[in-house]
Write a structure and sequence with these properties.
The complex is a heterodimer of chains A (321) and B (293).
Chain A: E1 4-22, E2 25-42, E3 46-50, H1 57-64, E4 72-77, H2 86-90, E5 93-97, H3 109-119, H4 124-137, H5 153-165, E6 171-175, H6 183-200, E7 203-207, H7 211-217, E8 220-225, E9 228-234, H8 237-241, E10 245-252, E11 265-270, E12 273-279, H9 285-294, E13 297-303, H10 307-320
Parallel strand pairs in A: 3-7, 3-8, 5-6, 6-7
Antiparallel strand pairs in A: 1-2, 1-4, 8-9, 10-12, 10-13, 11-12
Helix pairs in contact in A: 5-6
Chain B: H1 2-5, H2 23-46, H3 49-74, H4 85-106, H5 112-118, H6 121-125, H7 131-137, H8 145-161, H9 168-198, H10 203-217, H11 226-235, H12 243-250, H13 266-291
Classes of the chains: A alpha/beta (321), B mainly alpha (293).
Organism (chain A): Streptomyces longispororuber
GO molecular function, one term (chain A): ATP hydrolysis activity
Domain ABC transporter (chain A): 12-251
């Protein structure tokens, strides 16, 4: 056993899709939802797992939780083969499905927690301690006696996260944990996850469409598309891989034809304001100097590339290659 | 049931700290989880107390009217297929009770297809308790006690109004018949659910065996064509729910010239059906986990 907590080695998942092509005639073809993925996650890391719909994110999570059996490759979570020992693994993991609550709709929130306590056989002292911590950090004290159906989406998500943590899981999988939440709720959820990871060293793997989640939470990010891992590394590194560009926005004294400077190109003009794109890795200083020297400059600002654009570019590049 | 067999997949000794091993322990674990989840549903139901009382009464009235239809029939004729009202009531009460008990405890399994379609089955698969227990306890509806109550009332009426030549064996046959019948119907529910892993809208097929079988068995076998009687005896063995043991109690000839001892086979038939359903469930769950649909 390695020191890595989650290990995937060439993991594949192939689905047989049958399509009706005529009366009683069916065409079979295979879809490789996950096509040979390899990565390791050490204990205590917080990793973002991103990709467009249908890229294979959920399939990977389902294999990691033992819901789906891989078609090939080797997979271990806490030393356990999830597909073979699903129920044993269940005691070691916590799962939050953003769009499917596991709370009891018509009962007060606390009742769902009491069920978890008995279902997972959580010792009384542990349960009390974990519940207290979740109630405090997730701000649930006023909600415990409220029937779940009366909770807002954000409150319910916080409730769901607490439910997934009462049995002290070593790893927490979050599938779209901030989907549909307002700004304040998102901030609360992110703050809690950060504290959880820092405080109790819980390994966290989260999938999301909201790249702000990743920017605020994860030092490491994995990008998956068409069932393959396209990027695995620090968030900053994405820019280099995606060959992203920074933007220099200049306000000139008057309207001018597009500026001509080396190492940058004008991508947009609007009256006296012009947008110049330059490689993210390059320094802005020489460019600013060059512009100021040759043109009547009034004001300027530099915009960092937004990660969304970087990833969109990655997908687009892959699509054409 | 299928979950009981799952242990074979586990390496020996691997479970040291992670819960019980062995089929019996798994069964206990499943029953415990069933109890926990059922209790939650009952409390959920009680959140709408008035609504519960009304639906329970409606359920009792609806099943009650069912028997009234038979009473009305007997206001026109004295015998049906050679059977009197008391004897029909006996068969009716027995099957109604057995079906009611199976429906009460396992009836929710027909919702499995919906859970597969909307993906909520996955939330059950990440719990450390058997999936079968969770699916069976899902949306446990106490109002289904209505049918059990009605069945027991009709059975009590039948026992009071029919001349039965009681022997100790016949007395023993009553609970044996009800328990085995519940097991046979329960196995059909599990089998139907297992089939829904593959064809997610298969609950109607299962309903034709459960609800349809229930209606069929309310009448004596002499009412029906031989082929149908043969079918429910040898193919889908619901004749073992009440016809064979029931006719023994009533001292009536069996359909299809079966020997007398078949009256005592229902427990074995129920056990075989449940084992078969358990295997089917296991295969269904495995297929779901490999296809995800």
């Amino acid at each position: 056993m390695t020191s890595d907590f989650i290990t995937l080695d060439g993991v594949e998942k192939v689905f047989d899709v049958r399509r009706r092509t005529g009366f009683l005639r069916r065409e079979r073809h295979q879809v490789r939802a996950v096509d040979g993925i390899t990565f390791q996650v050490p204990r205590g890391e917080m990793v973002g797992y991103i990709g467009p719909n249908g890229a294979g994110k959920s399939t990977t999570i389902k294999m990691l939780t033992g819901i789906l059996t891989p078609s090939g490759g080797r997979l271990r979570v806490a030393g356990i083969d999830p597909a073979r020992e699903r129920t044993r693994l269940a005691r070691h993991i916590g799962v939050v499905f953003g769009q499917r609550t596991t709370l009891w709709w018509d009962l007060p929130l606390i009742d769902s927690y009491r069920l978890m306590r008995r279902m997972y056989r959580i010792p009384d002292a542990r349960y009390a301690e974990n519940l207290d911590r979740c109630v405090e950090l997730l701000d649930l004290a006023a909600l415990l006696e409220v029937p779940v159906r009366q909770l807002s989406l954000g409150q319910r998500m916080r409730g769901d996260i607490a439910a997934a943590l009462l049995h002290d899981p070593e790893v927490l999988y979050l599938d779209e944990p901030t989907i549909g939440l307002d700004v304040v709720s998102k901030a609360k959820v992110r703050g809690f996850l950060r504290d959880l990871n820092a405080g109790s060293g819980t390994t966290v793997l989260l999938t999301t469409h909201d790249l702000t989640d990743i920017e605020q939470l994860c030092r490491r990010v994995m990008v998956i598309d068409h069932g393959r891992l396209m990027y695995d590394g620090p968030l900053d590194g994405l820019h280099e891989v995606g060959q992203s560009e920074r933007m220099l926005v200049v306000d000139l004294e008057r309207e001018l034809p597009p500026l001509e400077v080396e190492s940058a190109r004008v991508v947009r003009t609007e009256g006296p304001r012009q947008w110049l794109a330059f490689p993210a890795a390059a320094s802005a200083a020489p460019l600013v100097a060059a512009v100021a020297e040759r043109y009547p400059l009034v004001d300027l600002s530099v915009r960092e590339p937004d990660i969304e654009a970087v990833i969109a570019k990655m997908y687009a590049d892959r699509g054409t290659s | 049931m299928a979950e009981l067999l799952r242990d074979r997949e586990t390496a020996p000794g691997a479970r040291a700290f992670d819960g019980p091993a062995g089929p019996l322990a798994r069964a206990r674990e499943g029953l415990r989880a069933y109890g926990l989840i059922t209790a939650m549903w009952i409390r959920s139901t009680m959140a709408y107390r008035t609504s519960f009382v009304l639906t329970a009464l409606a359920n009792l009235a609806a099943t009650g009217l069912d028997f009234v239809a038979i009473l009305l029939m007997f206001s026109q004729v004295d015998r049906l297929g050679g059977y009197g009202l008391g004897e029909i009531a006996f068969l009716y009460g027995a099957v109604s009770t057995a079906f009611g008990l199976a429906d009460l405890t396992m009836g929710s399994m027909e919702r499995l297809g919906r859970r597969v379609r909307d993906g909520t089955l996955d939330t059950l698969l990440v719990r450390p308790v058997p999936v079968l227990a969770q699916v069976a306890a899902d949306r446990f509806a106490l109002r289904r006690l209505g049918r059990v109550t009605q069945g027991l009332l009709v059975l009590a009426y039948a026992l009071g109004s029919t001349d039965i030549d009681w022997t100790p064996l016949k007395v023993l046959m009553i609970p044996l018949m009800l328990i085995s019948g519940t097991g046979i119907f329960a196995s059909v529910f599990v089998l139907g659910a297992a089939f829904q892993f593959v064809a997610q809208d298969a609950s109607e097929v299962q309903n034709s065996f459960t609800y349809g079988g229930n209606t069929l068995l309310q009448y004596p076998p002499t009412v029906f064509a031989q082929e149908l009687v043969r079918g429910v005896t040898y193919v889908v063995p619901i004749a073992f729910v009440n016809w064979l043991p029931g006719l023994y109690v009533l001292g009536r000839p069996y359909p299809l010239d079966l020997p007398a001892w078949v009256a005592f086979t229902p427990p074995a038939v129920a056990f075989a059906c449940l084992a078969l359903a358990g295997l089917a469930w296991r295969a269904g769950l495995r297929s779901y986990r490999s296809t995800g649909s």
